[in-house]
Amino acid sequence: MKPGTKLKSAVCDTEVMVIRGSDAVVECGGAPMLDEKPAEAGALADAFAEGTQMGKRYVDEAGTVELLCVKAGKGSLAIDGVILKTKDAKSLPSSD
Amino acid sequence: MAKVMQGVKVLEVAQFTYVPAAGAILADWGADVIKVEHPERGDTQRGFVNLGGIKVNPKRSPFVEHPNRGKRSVGIDISKPEGMAVIYELAKTADVFLTNYRPSQRQRMKFDVEHIRAINPNIIYARGSAYGDKGPERDTGGFDGTAFWNRSGLADTFTPKELDGPLNQAIPAFGDSIGAMFIAGGISAALFHRERTGEAVEMDVSLLSTAWWAAGTSIDMGLDCGQIMHNAMPRSGGNPGNPLMGNYRTEDGGTINMCTLTPGPHIKNFFEHIGKPELAEDERFSSVEALMQNWEAASAEIDAAFRSKPFLYWREHLKTYSGQWAPVQSLMDLTTDEQALANDMLFEVEAADGGDPIKLVRGPVQFNHEPVQTTRAPEASEHTELVLMEMGMEWEEIEKLKALGAIA
């Protein structure tokens, strides 16, 4: 998958844009993501149902893949069954 | 709402509420606002875990949404020369450079007015500071709690002298939000001036100047007659000299604020409304001179009348009163106030977490009677690739800068 490519979930509304790619197959909600949405959505796997958040970046442990979520959905993003983590701002704890 | 700022590009290198909220107002008005954030930490305000002791949900933080809705976020490390080079590139096509970094930081990282003007001589350079960009404390930072509320004299003026210490600001980003509107107004005037004359100006608003303008009538008065108004302890009753001014307690402990500065024309209508039409015929109160003279006796009568009925009764009943008054409401009461909602006080943005839409308060200015339509605040660095590619940067360069940690 090439940077700039859009991938769509086969089981929920999630859509991502590939920021950093590799040969890996990205899954969402337990099923491989596709270039186009299937006519009928598949079943969401319970173990991959944490949901995605729009505007968040998702990365693998090795840092070889980075995906930008452009549409939120119910599935979890994963590669080879390993759930991808969000790349969160490491903000400095503050309180007013 | 009419996008009066459509086509205007704002480059925002700023944090917290005060200056970013000016960018949010301009974005509400249609400007393309690019918010520069630290690649790892984001805007420091993203780290706020409490709002006055109330826990904040970081996915739906009002501290992020209120000052950043409608923008795009680009992650750039401005402390790295490679990062600053990206800022310069973005500045080339920007109309406005908006910042609240301190002078020493602007100099050290080389994005002060002379550095940005060297790249783009036609850019409007807008600064928001704590205490102003001139004078011995121009490099001193601050928040609205310090500069706007406490140092300015506001806390002192709002606090009755009987209390043991000054009142707090009570509303987060209160001075920030007011000052942000001043910045947006100043930028609008600067854009108009540039359009007419071609001259790009520098512009400053400080949190201190925000407060001194808001308190201007009192300060001017104090200078001229050596005395200023000061809050007194709350009580129920009329103000000295005008019983149709003052707070009156209701039967159930609510408060009606009477604010009829010119009571004469309203005497009859008022006494009818409080169920004492006979008092309008009483020679102590029937003329404005007599009413002002006998304000204490009038106040006692009015106080007794208000205490005979509950708050909700008065709130409805006084709607037909010819003079000025208000029910003393809470901020949350305002969110269900028919009149506020009829004027589009609230608008919704899609939530990033896919949950219920987030309701936000609009800015004070409305164009063409139309509600605000905009998008949620960006996630930190959400639009880096998009904005940089729009600017003409190749993917290889983006990868290279990422590897250096200059962008994210």
Shape designation of chain A: globular
Proportion of beta-strand residues of chain A: 25-35%
How many whole angstroms does the radius of gyration of chain A measure? 13 Å
The unreliable regions of chain B are: none
Number of strands of chain B: 14
Query: How large, in whole angstroms, is the Cα Rg of chain B?
Result: 26 Å
Summing up helix and strand content along with how strands pair, one would put the structural category of chain B as: alpha/beta
Shape of chain B: elongated
Nearest-integer average pLDDT of chain B: 96
How much helical structure, as a percent, in the residues of chain A? under 10%
Q: What is the N-to-C succession of helices and strands of chain A?
A: EEEEEEEEEE
Q: What assembly state would you assign to the polypeptide chains in this entry?
A: heterodimer
Task: Give a written overview of the molecule.
- The complex is a heterodimer of chains A (96) and B (408).
- With 96 residues, chain A is mainly β.
- Chain A has no helices and ten strands.
- In chain A, strands 1-2-6-5-9 form a five-stranded antiparallel beta sheet, with no helix packed on it. A four-stranded antiparallel beta sheet of chain A has the order 4-3-7-8, with no helix packed on it.
- In chain A, a hairpin with a 2-residue loop joins strand 7 and strand 8.
- Chain A starts with 5 loop residues before the first strand and ends with a strand.
- With 408 residues, chain B is an alpha/beta fold.
- Chain B has helices at 18-28, 62-68, 81-91, 103-108, 113-119, 144-151, 154-158, 174-197, 207-214, 216-225, 267-273, 288-293, 295-306, 311-317, 331-334, 338-342, 384-390, 395-403, and strands at 9-13, 32-37, 48-51, 54-55, 72-75, 96-99, 124-129, 202-206, 237-239, 242-249, 255-259, 325-327, 346-349, 358-361.
- In chain B, the strands form four sheets. A six-stranded parallel beta sheet of chain B has the order 5-2-1-6-7-8, with helices on both faces.
- In chain B, helix 6 (144-151) packs parallel to helix 9 (207-214) and helix 8 crosses helix 9.
- The longest helix of chain B has 24 residues, at 174-197.
- Chains A and B meet through strand 10 of A and strand 3 of B.
